Amino acid sequence: MSTPLNLLDHLTLAPVLLPFATGLLLLSLRGQTIAVQRGLSGLGVLLQVVAAVALLLQADTGLISVYRLGDWPAPWGIVLVADRLAAWMVLITSLLALWVVLHASDGTDNQGSYFHVLVQLQLFGLYGAFLTGDLFNLFVFFEVLLIASYSLMLHGGGAARVRAGLHYVVLNLLGSAVFLLAAGLIYASMGSLNLADLAAKAAYVTPDNLGLARTGGLLLLVVFALKAALLPLSLWLPGTYAAAPAPVAALFAIMTKVGAYAILRVATLIYGDSAGALAQLFAPWLLPAALATLAVSMLGALAAQDLRRLAAWLVVASVGTLLTAFSLGQAGVAAGLYYLPHGTFAAALLFLLAEAFARRRSDSQDRFLADQDMPHHALWGGLFFAAAVAVAGLPPLSGFVGKFLILRASSGQPVVWAVILLTAVLALVTLAHAGSRLFFSPASALATHDPRGLEPASVHLEALAIIGLLGLIVALTVAAGPAYDYALATAAQLADPTFYVHAVLGGKP
């Protein structure tokens, strides 16, 4: 007889259920005014933040919560698993979504159909990807969030978005096909797709099946590298993110972290130190690719001619920094987990600032060209300066703390130090150049600027969303001690997958 679930067990399902229910409600009320849709979408995201905080507090006790859908035991049934890592990712996503939805309510959401429905659908896919305990369902949630992202990418229309969207769709369809192939090879060699079951079986793969298991694992790395925009599979991202509407691009900042999360989860759980002949399968490839991604992305940022494309290249750079950290052992994983929310929020902040500048510079928009001073340019200049400090990793904000922790974890690896420090200098030069062109270029001969008829309410929502994202970065800085302690505990939990396996499989070997 199965044991009935208590209320805390149902908490694991809440982050997945809430956006799904909100999306269905919005779809059923599609004839309502945009104000009603905004209110329902905002309320849904607020509830998701509350659920994410509760889930994090539960995970912080060390408990790994398992929700068995249909009450089928693993590995035969579908399970959702909330450990420290999953709860951390869910919280980051929900906090980002809160400010993205608020910013979109400045009028961006009214430029096409079903914006808020699609945002909730994408959140459903994101939360599901972080919480699923099954490789095939990871594929399913990937497809859900990608389907939503295809439509969000094209929100508002335009030739540039259609062109960039076509590349985005084709590459991700190819990635989905490779994911299915990888899952098939892993199932053929190990007889399961449940992550905990795979972790238990990895060390006992027969010699005849080792080739299939290795091939499947490396194909998974290719798929996850495509999702994370790891070089050489990152060249699609700058054009795609630069063409997307600002709140969509800001939400997309977490999508690359889904790929990084998947790499970390599979590398530590299935191909960790206890995996026998399959141990450390990703290790020879990950660090060189991450360092190359970081270096090339900063060169791309240096060559960018507008703030949107600069922000897009910095998303790639944050992935390179993050995966470099994940390649440095347990201390590096902890440093990377602290840096992860910083990189996400900072990139999203730049996308929203780019949209604000484009609305207030009628001639040059967010391009690095001379134009008249923006209305309230002191406010926007101050916000850009704070964002630049955060992105460049200067003290006192969390970017400096995160990079310091990564450098400390890479002690004795001069190549890692050289790449991180050099790219930090390039980031500083790039952002200084961008700021000087946006705010200090004389343009007395240009026509008087018209702020494009922005409504006061829109201006307030836009500024509030940007300040809110900046506030998250400040909060991460102020709470650096507790946040890093949580990251250290998460890295320790990942280093020993025994607890995860026992929680999901019920103590079976």
Provide a compact summary of the structure:
The protein has one domain (7-505). Helix content is 72%, strand content 2%.
Report on this structure.
The protein has 509 residues and is an all-alpha fold. It has one domain (7-505). Helix content is 72%, strand content 2%. A two-stranded antiparallel ribbon has the order 1-2. The longest helix has 32 residues, at 159-190. The two termini are 21 Å apart. The relative contact order is 0.10.
The largest sheet is: 2 strands, antiparallel
Number of strands: 2
Helices and strands, in order, run as HHHEEHHHHHHHHHHHHHHHHHH
- Please give the count of helices: 21
Strand order of the largest sheet: 1-2
Helix content: over 70%
The average pLDDT is 89
The count of domains is: 1
Overall form: globular
The residue ranges in which pLDDT falls below 50 over 5 or more consecutive positions are 1-5, 444-453
DSSP strand content: under 5%
Oligomer: single chain
Q: What is Rg? A: 22 Å
Keywords:
72% helix, mainly alpha, single chain, two-stranded antiparallel ribbon, 509 residues, 21 helices
Layout of SSEs?
Layout: H1 7-10, H2 14-28, H3 34-59, E1 65-68, E2 79-82, H4 84-104, H5 115-131, H6 135-153, H7 159-190, H8 195-201, H9 207-228, H10 237-243, H11 246-252, H12 255-269, H13 283-303, H14 307-326, H15 329-360, H16 377-392, H17 398-409, H18 414-439, H19 456-478, H20 480-495, H21 498-505
